[in-house]
Design brief:
Three copies of one chain form a homotrimer.
Chain A: E1 3-12, E2 17-20, H1 22-32, E3 37-43, E4 48-54, H2 58-71, H3 88-97, E5 101-107, E6 110-111, E7 117-123, E8 130-139
Antiparallel strand pairs in A: 1-8, 2-7, 3-5, 3-8, 4-7, 5-6
């Protein structure tokens, strides 16, 4: 019979960059003892993202950061919302360009990630923040 | 026991901009009487988006609009699909750059949004449109 | 009573471009015999995307490809991760700018797509690849 389980993960960031929390999410799946199901993630913030990306060569994530820094430059004079710092509005734009939700099926007790996929919180602010990911698990 | 409920919300837009429908979605959750669960939204259009963004300073949304207007300019000579107007193809590109799905867990009868998160339909066309969001609720 | 069903679709791509798999997904829904429910898709790769876009005028998809090719040019000297080819890092960036998950409610046995919506795998690599989409179906 289908059951659900609601949890959250708190991630302390040390400023802009990628934070892999694949293992923490898999632990929640293990604790719920679901063999088959669905994990749905929601990030409760508007200046950070959830991203599934390559977990092999760290240069991929450096290049992602380089690209987004060029596409949405800090301190761009286009922006009027500047009271929270010159990285704040770019952080909102980066979040709009990416995702705050992820949905990953579970098979044989494991998240069905591809061989090279890791799950990241992408912090867009330059200062450290505490970020919360709500995790809904459905399964049996 | 887990139940599901299928609904939709119709949103009349007055042209390009952000339309907050957080309260309408929460009402659907209230009517379904789910304490714990998951709300999944699907927008049935290809020239508008669903976006979770800051609901405090309206300047944030103005800046998002300014950024996307500069990134994907109306009337860009790059585009060949121009028969529906010079804002049509940019609207498709903006939709591709954002999302048409959202998934938000429910806890204690409420959408688990962060303190500053609102749920918006982002209309990308300059003319008014009628937009439909399909809402699937799962819970107990 | 709610049930779930886990499946996958394998899609052979012939290089960069859009591959419509709406009908294959609808077939999985038909086989599961769900009248009402939710289909959740996860793509197990980091250099291709899942996209819902207009399925009427093919020029829309050509223009999407033109726009992304200009926004994230192959061989951009910004990128350091170049060992897998000059289209590899742009493929990761395109994936970050779009989505690898989709969630589509089911009503009266059908995916609740809009009139002009098709479901595409968007291959970002120039060489052919074999791509897997994991499909979780929930319903009754």
């Amino acid at each position: 019979m289908l059951r659900q389980s609601l949890n959250h993960l708190d991630i302390a960031t040390r400023g802009r960059g990628f934070y892999d929390f694949t293992d923490s999410l898999q632990e929640l799946v293990n604790e719920a003892k679901f063999q088959t199901g669905l994990a749905t993630l929601h990030l409760q913030h508007t200046s950070a993202s959830l991203l599934i990306q390559e977990n092999a060569d760290p240069e991929v994530r450096h290049d992602l950061e380089r690209f987004f820094s060029r596409l949405v430059p800090d301190g761009d004079p286009l922006f009027q919302h500047t009271s929270e710092g010159e990285d704040d509005m770019p952080a909102h734009v980066r979040t709009a360009l990416t995702c705050v939700n992820l949905s990953i099926p579970i098979a044989q007790g494991n998240l069905t990630l591809g061989t090279w996929q890791g799950i990241y919180l992408w912090e867009h602010r330059t200062e450290p923040h505490r970020r919360r990911v709500v995790v809904h698990l459905l399964g049996e």
